[in-house]
Amino acid sequence: MVRFGLVGYGFGGRYFHAPLLATAPGIEFAGVVTRSPQRRAELAGDRPGVPAFDSLAALAAAGAEAVAISTPADTRVALVHEAITLGLAVVVDKPFALDAAAARGFVEAAEEAGVPLSVYQNRCWGSGLLPLRRLIDAGELGAVTRFESRFERFSPEPGPPAAGGGTLRDFGAHLVDQALLLFGSATRVYAEMRGRHDLDDDVFVALHHASGVESHLWGSWVQAAPGPRFRVTGTTGTYIVNGMYGMDGQEAALVAGRTPATEGDNWGVEPEAFWGVLHRAGGEEPVPTERGRWDTYYPAFAAAVRGEGPMPVDPRDVVRNVEVLDAARESAATGRAVLI
Hints:
Elements: E1 2-7, H1 11-23, E2 27-33, H2 37-46, E3 52-53, H3 56-61, E4 66-69, H4 76-85, E5 89-93, H5 100-113, E6 117-120, H6 129-137, E7 144-152, H7 166-183, E8 186-194, E9 202-209, E10 214-220, E11 230-234, E12 238-241, H8 249-255, H9 260-263, E13 276-280, E14 283-287, H10 297-305, H11 315-334, E15 338-339
């Protein structure tokens, strides 16, 4: 068992990390670092018996071997470096860092210390992305020419604050990650950003990949009529996942208090309304989703810590993601495409 702690018990820590750490095979949930009386009360109500700690040092002294850091992005530089100095294996929530220089600093420090490091890009195991990867690998779309992907929602409140990276680095961390995962490195980036309260709560990013594919990515907190979650166009077909139903149901399940432990084999299974549709010259056919597997990330990381498997997300891959996001911010500020 890997004794695993968590830093931060806000929305991300409470709903996206704690439930999966508490139910992951091969992991003992060792406690949460938070000084907030409110967060401590929530932890006690959610997970009786899981201790709260005032500091990373106290968590490490209690026997933790690994830690997930889920605090606002502008607080993470010191925390990640402290965890590495303490010899803790580290999972960093997305966005990995607010800029590529900080992200590279994390990787270099971990490599120098010989400490395992990864990034929580959980949506690589999303129920909508997995069948898309299968279709592409099987050549069902022919040669892909354009990839469209959206994280669009509507809220009367502002989107993620600058302290958390804003919408570009919040939703964009997943959108860009998936585009790079599917189609390889980007060589040119163009972006537009606008929003309320001086925030970037409506973002468009266009990537030109070295493979020749064009990715068009939207992230928004002000879109009341979302477009397709995915629309992927190839030389022989197009695959579409409806925007209303295409957001992975694992998020809603965790927020509702369901976990892989409570759901068993039903975890990550989506209703037929969530399925995509493959359009080709001969007509259209539904494409069943695959079971979403966010629950596989932490067991895979624990195995990597024990030297029994590869790291589930290579942090150097995520540095390239942050470089794209940096270029997108530059493009939006200058109105010009940026070569990377």
